[in-house]
Amino acid sequence: MLNKTMLIGNLGADVETRYTKNQVAVANFRVATTERWKDSEGNQQEATEWHRVVAFGRLAEICGEYLAKGSRVYLEGRLQTRKWEDSDGNNRFTTEIIAREMKMLGGGDKAENVPALPKDGQEPPFSDDVPF
């Protein structure tokens, strides 16, 4: 089975970086992707989709340090849907991309591939103390 997502888009706001109780960095940010096409009448059309992105560990720290609103990025990761109960007792869901790799686009000396996982390939364990 394969769960892989690749995006090229722009950040809609600055990265929010927090730390778990175990001092694991967690970065949250949103990326917009825009599709453009011409309709049957030749008019230019546009649709923007917003994606929630979460990065952990060293990748989260790098995202927090180098990315800002408007930054253009390439991201690779996997989709994850979480369920929770709101204050009214309603079930709520959110789907987000758990980033594994990020590349800063748009030129500059800092554009590079950044792996999110340690060399042993293990993801940080999911914990209830991850701030979302």
Structure explained in plain terms:
By secondary structure, the chain is mostly beta strands. The chain has one domain (5-37, 45-109): OB fold (Dihydrolipoamide Acetyltransferase, E2P). The chain is 8% helix and 52% strand. The protein contains 1 helix and 7 strands. It has one helix at 57-66, and strands at residues 5-11, 16-19, 25-38, 44-56, 72-85, 91-104, 113-115. The protein starts with a strand and ends in a 17-residue tail after the last strand. Residues 108-132 have low confidence and may be disordered.
CATH homologous group name? Nucleic acid-binding proteins
What coarse outline follows from CA principal-axis ratios?
globular
For the secondary structure, the number of strands is 7
In what range is the share of β-strand residues?
over 45%
Instruction: Decide which structural class fits the backbone.
Output: mainly beta
Going by CATH, the architecture would be Beta Barrel
Task: Note the gap between the termini.
Answer: 27 Å
> What percent of the residues sit in helical stretches (DSSP H or I)?
under 10%
Task: Write down the Rg.
Answer: 16 Å
In CATH, what is the class?
Mainly Beta
- Strand arrangement in the largest pleated sheet: 1-3-4-6-5
> Stretches where pLDDT falls below 50 for ≥5 residues?
108-132
Order of helices and strands: EEEEHEEE
